[in-house]
Amino acid sequence: MDLYVIFGLPGAGKTYTGKIAEKYFGFYLYDGDQDMSAKYKKAVTAEEINDDLRQVFFDQLIKSIGKLKEKNIVVTQTFLKEKFREQFLKEFPQTKFILVEASVEVREKRLLNLDRFTLSLEKWQRMSKIFEEPQIPHKIIYNNYEGEDAVKEQLEKLFSLY
Predict the structure, then answer these.
(1) What 3-state DSSP class applies to 15?
(2) Beta bridge partner(s), residue 141
(3) Cα separation of 40 and 44, whole Å?
(4) Angle between helix 14-25 and helix 149-161 axes, rounded to 10 deg
(5) What confidence tier does 111 reach under pLDDT thresholds 50, 70, 90?
(6) At what angle do helices 51-67 and 38-45 cross, to 10 degrees?
(7) Opening angle at CA 141, ends 145 and 56, nearest 5
(8) Do residues 32 and 61 make contact, with C-beta atoms less than 8 angstroms apart?
(9) Residue with the larger pLDDT of the pair 128 and 148
(10) Which of 59, 66, 75, 80 has the smallest C-beta neighbourhood within 10 Å, fewest atoms?
(11) The domain at 2-161 falls in which architecture?
(12) Which of 2, 15, 1 is nearest to 100 (CA)?
């Protein structure tokens, strides 16, 4: 099984990148947000999120991924903290991480149009400040573009490298 985690800052285009991997490369897309409980979503919105709540969320995410039997999977999730990336990698050592990056201006424009969470731009910015730079092995995709072609080309190169 090929297992990729597509992670990065809010608004970078993680889910968009995952959808391209699904559409063009035959991956099963698992959006990690589907494991967010109502309590977790409420805590995020109220900015009352902490590592204990994150741990419960990541325990559920790991359980969900463990149940999947698909041949090739991409998981999209922010993975703000390095310890949760390491925990996921320990559970699934075959995981390959792809960091999606986009400029601040592009991310903020996307976040203002995001319909999954109703957070102010200031709350998104505060969330971005706690994003820990990844120390785990990873590749990078740049997603400052309109259209799928640039992301598709980068994914194709990355998949051939792994």
Answers:
(1) helix
(2) 100
(3) 6
(4) 70
(5) confident
(6) 140
(7) 115
(8) yes
(9) 148
(10) 66
(11) 3-Layer(aba) Sandwich (3.40)
(12) 15
Q: For the segment 114-125, what is each residue's pLDDT rounded down to a tens digit?
A: 766 566 767 777
Please say whether the beta carbons of 123 and 97 come within 8 A: no
Look up residue 19 and give its amino acid: K
20-50 pLDDT, tens digit per residue, is 999 999 999 999 999 998 888 888 777 788 8
The ranges assigned to domains in the chain are: 2-161
Q: How far apart are CA 74 and CA 57, in angstroms?
A: 18
54-62 long-range Cβ contacts below 8 angstroms, 24+ apart: 54/80, 54/81, 54/84, 55/84, 58/84, 58/87, 58/88, 60/35, 61/32, 61/35, 61/88, 62/87, 62/88, 62/91, 62/92
**Per-residue DSSP letters for 135-160?**
-S-EEEEE--SSSSHHHHHHHHHHHH
pLDDT tens digit sequence for 135-159: 999 999 999 987 899 999 999 999 9
Answer yes or no: are the C-beta atoms of 96 and 26 closer than 8 Å.
no
**36 closest CA partner among 61, 5, 14:** 61
